[in-house]
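User: structure tokens for Protein kinase, please.
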Amino acid sequence: MRTDSPASEILPLIRQYTGSVGSIRPTERGFNSDLTALVDSEKGWFFVKAVRNRPGGRRASLIRERVINDYTSTVAPPLLWDVEDDEWLILGFMAVEARTALFEPDSPDVPVVVRLIREIGELPLPRHVEHWTETRWDRFTADPSEASLFRGDSLLHTDINPSNFLIGSEQCWVVDWAWPTRGAGFIDVALLVVQLIAAGHAPAEAERWVTRCPAWRRAEPHAVDAFAAANLRMHRSYAKRKLGVEWLDAMVSACRAWTDYRGVVVD
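Assistant: Done. Predicted tokens:
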């Protein structure tokens, strides 16, 4: 193990929880952390997320993930320990044996994912989240008044994508609760619709899947339309700043297919 790597730097901090460590295997994903890794140790396997302990978005996201875990135990792997010093903030989760979900048409994972989205929508709003108002789509609305349509009292995950849904043989999980917020319950469901379209579902088919979610059935069509348009503008803005990024281009195409299907004209 390199002595100047993040894995080697966190090792002295985590030993109090892990005992002796056999290996620290960085994972492929984890763009919002300085290190995400599976740790094989004397006390078992752990999934570890670590960020440099500096003010800013990465630290804030890990703080939120630490706070919210007590309230998401039915859908998320439990946080077993956390440790912090002047240099690092580290979370140690229970490691789960599972694979990333498949969102493509005919995938047996799709009804499982829809069920998990429904279960998120049924979680009570934790008191910590009361002031975490969802505002990321506000500046992409056609009119500032539309932002009120995105307000609500539901706990939102907001990072709905296949990598954050893990399918195990006995249990399935929603992971990476880096930016939980408070908002309209249909938002997570709408984000799933876009992801299903990006995976190859026709817009009508994607919307049929999410009719199983009460938050979707309760949503006002004009609120969904406003969100669909704002989501397209947001992804279009990101894609213009990062030209040629494949996943962003795919999201723009999926968002546009959805607004076209709903008859929403987006400037």
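User: Anything notable?

Assistant: The mean pLDDT is 95.
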